Amino acid sequence: MKEQDSDNRLGRYLRARRELVSPAQAGLPPGGNRRVPGLRREEVALLAGISPDYYLRLERGRDKNPSQQVLEALARVLQLDDIEQTYLLGLSAARPKTPRRKRPEHVPARVHQLLAHLQMPAFVEGRAFDVLASNPMAVALSPRLRPGENRLRSLFQDPEEQAFHQDWTKAAADFVAALRTTIGDDIDNPRFVELVGEFALSSQRFRTLWARHDVRSLDGGTITVNHPVVGELRLHRDKLAIDDVILVVYYPDKGSDSDEKLQLLAALSPAEPAGTAPDRPIDDPRRVEWRGAAPHRSATD
């Protein structure tokens, strides 16, 4: 049945997550002739200790104010981690929305100086993964880290970026889940609406991942990339929030093979700064394609 309204975020999330939990994972016999993937509604209700009718009302948007105890029980049944449970709790209508100030994402002058001094790939990104500023080493690592690029657009529409990631499938899933986490309750922000609409039209992979309703943070971690000049690099990633933007730094283990390759890359890269993107509000509809070229589809989509 169709949801009661188009703003039933809680119901859509519950349905998406129960479809990802198998009966075996929930400790139930698989049974036969199951018409839905994952758990049935009545199974979720039984395991959470609530009535099937009440759970149906939650999924269909008829009750948008469940108690924290109910949501925590559902999180347990749906096997959500801490980040996913926090996201679920935030979908309750009882949670007051904090208005966001609509202002340009600005890179402080001190951060430009920091970028100029860092000898490792470093750049500044906004909430929607727009690259706002970067140093020469970042651009040497990947031309898609120039100011004005969007990391999600590169990931889903640029074959070179897809080849750059040794595990593109995981990178794509992580970025989409991080985007949903970043959006939170700011669902009407024109920049987010624009990006989700663009990728939903151009990428089947994005549509599939978006429908899963995964949420996670994309902070520290380690990635392996395939650089076209120096080859495979294993790099750690750290993120630091500065005012309204995020400083991202990639670095290898000291004395490692990747460290030597990064030093070689530094010797081959230009010394002039990569620059910065012009300040524009994150919700400015004009901020569509910085490169000036029409986005192209990946061969994988």
Report on the architecture of this protein:
The chain has 301 residues and is of the alpha+beta class. 41% of the residues lie in helices and 12% in strands. It is built from 13 helices and six strands. It has helices at residues 9-18, 41-48, 52-59, 68-77, 82-90, 109-117, 136-141, 151-157, 159-164, 168-183, 190-202, 204-212, 257-268; strands spanning 122-125, 131-134, 221-227, 231-242, 245-251, 275-276. Strands 3-4-5-1-2-6 form a six-stranded antiparallel β-sheet. A hairpin with a 5-residue loop joins β1 and β2 (131-134). α10 (168-183) packs across α12 and α11 packs across α12. The longest helix has 16 residues, at 168-183. It is elongated, with a radius of gyration of 22 Å. The two termini are 30 Å apart. The relative contact order is 0.13. Mean pLDDT is 84; it is low at 1-5 and 280-301.
